[in-house]
Amino acid sequence: MDLLTYCKRLPKIELHAHLTGSLSDATVLQLLEVKREQLGEHHLPDSAEVTIRQGHNRSLEECFKVFGILHYLSDSLEAVENITRNVIQEFAADNVWYLELRTTPKHIPGKMTKKQYMDTVLKVVRSEMEHNKITVRLLLSVDRSRGVEDAHTTLALAKHYRVSTEYKDLVCGLDVSGNPHVGSLLDYIPVLEEAKKCGLKLAVHLAEVPNEDEVQAILNAGLVDRIGHGTFLHPGSGGTQDHLTVVRNKLIPLEICLSSNVKSGTVKTVEQHHFARWKELKHPLIICTDDKGVFCTTLSEEYYLCAKTFSLPEEDIQDLCLQAVEATFMNQKEKTILRQTVQNELKSLQGKLLM
Ligand code: 6MZ
Q: Which of 42, 104, 175, 312 is the most exposed place for a label (fewest CB within 10 A)?
């Protein structure tokens, strides 16, 4: 089979996907329709404002404006239910077998509390897992632009789920994300320390833009289980040898989001992406979508882009699927089962790729 078909057939693991950024065009159009019925045509964003068509780019700042529009469009519990269902079904249709979805719990006065938001997401996750061949886990996102007090309420909610009978198996950790030009990660270290003490796993957006002080402080704190992006960590891409050494020694996996970085302009071209430098070091790397809706991609297309750009042999492509299994926040027992099923599927695909 050709490379794209092969990538679609791979049993994939998605570890860096923001719920609201993952909304497909079809979902955005549905949300717009609901708003149109409620409000009429006035003040409605054009759907073209919300997605990035093939070949188009958008700066990080523009992306954060888009997230604002998407949040406005999904500001009811009914919308939250729909977007969660659609996103999970779309990942399942792309042959994603395991999905760690992350989302920022939202408090919208008069419409929802953070707990209602998360309960809604979790309820849909549970039901979609029954109807699709996909396992889903949740990371609660701390948005660095919303302040430390907000982060504490998100942490409290994550702690609540960790001991709840209903959802403790679904909530595995915290993500720290948000506009990297706003706020400082240093302020969030106490939140991360407490989260870690409670057994929550931590995925932190680090060095998505250059910020040596933050990288230094976060790496020194030694709390992070996976790094989101890590664009400016390697000395060859604007980082330092010290940072490289820490990340390498601790084997902290990097969540690699090729289209996101190139389309948002933090990396000039896919060829120049830091993936290549870290791969040379045999560092654990996970191919992810970040925001499949906003960046107009799928996980299969990200594997394709990676394999094509860096001329990866079949063995390396398959290895990316297995590295992703190892980096999940599942417990060892669950991981063993997932590894076995992924390995079996990979074996059945071996030799089928026409290079
Ligand atoms: C940093 C990002 C991001 O949480 O409302 N988010 N944070 N860098 C990125 N690179 C492009 N992409 C998405 O999903 C949307 C939120 O995810 C974070 C931002 O905080 C954004 O508001 P949820 O489901």
A: 42
